[in-house]
Structures are given as structure tokens and as C-alpha cells.
Amino acid sequence: MALLTIFTCIVLLVLLVSWIKVNPFIAFLIVSIIAGLLLGIPINKVTASVQKGMGDILGQLLIIICLGAMLGKLVATSGAAQKIAESLVKAVSKKNINATGELHGNTSAQRIQLALVAAGFIIGIPLFYGIGFVLMVPLIFSVVYKYKLPAVYIGLPMLASLSVTHGFLPPHPSPSALVALFHGNMATTFIYGLMIAIPAIILAGPVFSRFLKKIPSEPLATFRAEELPEDKLPGTANSFLTALLPVILLMLTALFPYLNIQDPDAAKIIAFLGDPSIVMLIALLVATFTLGVKQGKTMGQLAGSFTDAVKDVALILLIIAGSGAFKEVLTASGVSTQIADQLQALNLPPLLLGWVIAAIIRISLGSATVAGLTAAGIVAPLVIQNHVNPNLMVLSIGAGSLAFSHVNDSGFWLYKEYFNLSIKDTIKSWSVMETLVSFIGLIGVSILNLFIK
């Protein structure tokens, strides 16, 4: 009954948004309230669940998305994105740029795509998915606009690399928590995860995206700027360092635990400076000087640019808030536990069972983290009883937790709204990519299980 209720609510959400053309934020509110009532949440607590879900997800993302939009706008309007795009393309495809600066040749586009995938993978290891998305999207769009390339074809592979690192590799929250729960080894899990992540990214990214070149996409306008003459552009080093400063700061703070510094005050300071919100604020302040004031812009001009950037992402924030409300209603109703209990009765190998439970909870609730941790609680006893490799169980559940992201997942809406796609095209590209990653991850775990005991 619970699964039928969730399925009905998801269908209703899709119909409201795509057929009746209801604003997605309003549609999420309507469906969240209906789902809460149908799943048995007391009528006087439904709105509290909705508000909690919105607050929880916005508490994590509001500052990051707003500051990221401001930084992205500044990187675009200052010409830094143009400089980065030109430098990146020349580095990998210098022979394929003609005298007028235009790109030609499929091989050149593929090299650019692979360069962005590599950047997304490196950046994705220390960053949460949402932060990496906000930071890398302006770079994707700068290349797309500059060289008139298909946005989905160029951008989706980089997002695949971010998603894979989020689901498979420590130190991300879900795999790290699973390693601790199953008493695995963090370094071993990372190595095994790397062995699975690389083919998953290649197949679900560059290979799959070849079928997506004709998907129409006009990416979010806030990252589009008029092309500037060469003498008006910031320097190459300034452009790269400023745009990537958040990544650099986060990577430096991620290394701190391995330096074996015992001073508790130093640890507190590093923890404060390493908080994503503080990192984004520092990066924006630096960019305000290096790409703003230093380039001759007044503070009034910069303030206007920042205001426009926030306006451009306001609807995205509301939609993400709505998806958080829906997720919280499903979580508060206890439906994830009901689903897991029903699936535990299936007679499946433990690694496959972990993947199946995580995948179904992910599809039902939308949260990869909730899916992973819920599945882990169910299959934990089986790991000991059946002598299952704990590191492989971490990866199996991590793969399942990425399956078929759709309308109840905030990542779905981030991608849809930033790339300005229809729901149909978002499912054809984003949802299928996530599902490919999930199945390739399961296959990789199964192959490793043949050789690792």
C-alpha cells in the first residue's frame, strides 16, 4: 500500500508540472500534503513536516547556491569564464581552432568533454555534489556558449563524475558513514570505488552523452555574458585561481586531518574556514576584488550584478525546497522502513539485496543518503552472517542509492532548471545517466566479488 501511495503521488506530481503546467514549487507543496495525509501523518503535523523538510534542505544549500550564483555571474561578466574556456579549449584542441576562434571537428569537442570530466572528478572527491554542481556549471556554460556546443552533451559527463564520487567514494557522507557502519576500511573502499568509478563515469558520461547531442537546451542566462575583446579580459592565472578558489580552499581543509596536528584551537579554526558556506563567502570576497574592483567595476555595479544572480536562481531554490518537503513527508511517515522490511524477505545474495533495497528507497524517497543509510541498517547483520566483504557492501549500497533520480530528488531539479530542460528531456538524460551509473556500479561490485574474499 505504501509503495502504491508513493507511486500515485509521483505520477500526480509529474502531471501537475508537465501537463497542467503548475509551478513546480506549488506542485510539490500540494503533493507533499496529500502524501502526508495518505501515509498516516496526523493532520496537525503534516505542515510541520513540510516546513522541516524545506528548512533542512535550504539550510544546507541556500547560502551555497546564492553565493555560487553571485560568483558564477562575476566569473561570467568579468570575462574570466571566457578566458578559462579559451585556455581550456586551446590546451586540448589547439589545432582545431580556426583563425576566427571557432572550434571545428568532433574530436575536439570530445577532448573538451574529457577535460571537463577529469576536472569534475578531481573536484568531486572533496566536494559535496551540490557544491560541485554550483561551482562547475559556470565553466560548462562558458565552454558551451563560447564554442556553440550542445549543453547536455558537454555538461552531463562532468555531472556524472560528480555524482559517482558522491555515491561511491569517501570522504562523502554516505559512503563514509557506511564504511563505519560495516567496519570497513576507508582506504580500501576508496581504491575499490575508484576501480568501479572510472568505467561508470566513462560509460554513463562521454559514451552515453553521444546519444544526447540533439536535446535542445538554453542554459540559465545568469552565466551568459557578452564576449569581451582580448585586452579587456583578466589574466589566465587570475581567472583560473579565482574561479577555482572554493575548490582549492576545500581541498586544503580536507587535508588537515592527515597532518596529525594536535592543537584543538587550530582544528576549530580549520573546521570553521573549511565550512562550505565560509569558503564560498571568502571566494566571493576575493573575486569581488580580483575580477571586479581590479577590473574597473564599481561596488554599485557589482551589487547590481549580484542581485540579478540571486533573482535568476530564486525559482530553483523554491523548487529544491519543495523537493525537501516531499522527502521529509515520506521519511517522517516511516515508509522507508516499511519498504525495507518487505524487501528483506527476498531471497537474494547480500550484495544484490543491499543494492535493491537502496535503489527502491532512493526511487521512492529521492535522497541518496537516506536510501544508503536505511539499506545499511537492514543488511548489516547479513554482512557478518554471510562473511560479505564490507567494503564491497558499501559500494553496492552506494550504487543502489544513485538509481533513477527523478522528480522527488533535488539534484534532478538543479540539473533541469540550470540547463533549462523539459521534464521529458531531463529524464532522458539525467535520470538515465544516474541509472546507468547505478547498474554499472552493481556490475563492478559483482566482478570484484569474484576475486576479493
Automatic annotation (TrEMBL):
<feature type="transmembrane region" description="Helical">
    <location>
        <begin position="233"/>
        <end position="257"/>
    </location>
</feature>
<feature type="transmembrane region" description="Helical">
    <location>
        <begin position="392"/>
        <end position="415"/>
    </location>
</feature>
<feature type="transmembrane region" description="Helical">
    <location>
        <begin position="151"/>
        <end position="169"/>
    </location>
</feature>
<feature type="transmembrane region" description="Helical">
    <location>
        <begin position="269"/>
        <end position="293"/>
    </location>
</feature>
<protein>
    <submittedName>
        <fullName>TRAP transporter large permease subunit</fullName>
    </submittedName>
</protein>
<keyword id="KW-1133">Transmembrane helix</keyword>
<feature type="transmembrane region" description="Helical">
    <location>
        <begin position="57"/>
        <end position="76"/>
    </location>
</feature>
<keyword id="KW-0813">Transport</keyword>
<dbReference type="Pfam" id="PF02447">
    <property type="entry name" value="GntP_permease"/>
</dbReference>
<dbReference type="GO" id="GO:0015128">
    <property type="term" value="F:gluconate transmembrane transporter activity"/>
</dbReference>
<feature type="transmembrane region" description="Helical">
    <location>
        <begin position="26"/>
        <end position="45"/>
    </location>
</feature>
<dbReference type="InterPro" id="IPR003474">
    <property type="entry name" value="Glcn_transporter"/>
</dbReference>
<keyword id="KW-0472">Membrane</keyword>
<feature type="transmembrane region" description="Helical">
    <location>
        <begin position="114"/>
        <end position="144"/>
    </location>
</feature>
<feature type="transmembrane region" description="Helical">
    <location>
        <begin position="435"/>
        <end position="452"/>
    </location>
</feature>
<feature type="transmembrane region" description="Helical">
    <location>
        <begin position="352"/>
        <end position="380"/>
    </location>
</feature>
<comment type="similarity">
    <text>Belongs to the GntP permease family.</text>
</comment>
<dbReference type="GO" id="GO:0005886">
    <property type="term" value="C:plasma membrane"/>
</dbReference>
<keyword id="KW-1003">Cell membrane</keyword>
<feature type="transmembrane region" description="Helical">
    <location>
        <begin position="189"/>
        <end position="212"/>
    </location>
</feature>
<keyword id="KW-0812">Transmembrane</keyword>
<feature type="transmembrane region" description="Helical">
    <location>
        <begin position="313"/>
        <end position="332"/>
    </location>
</feature>
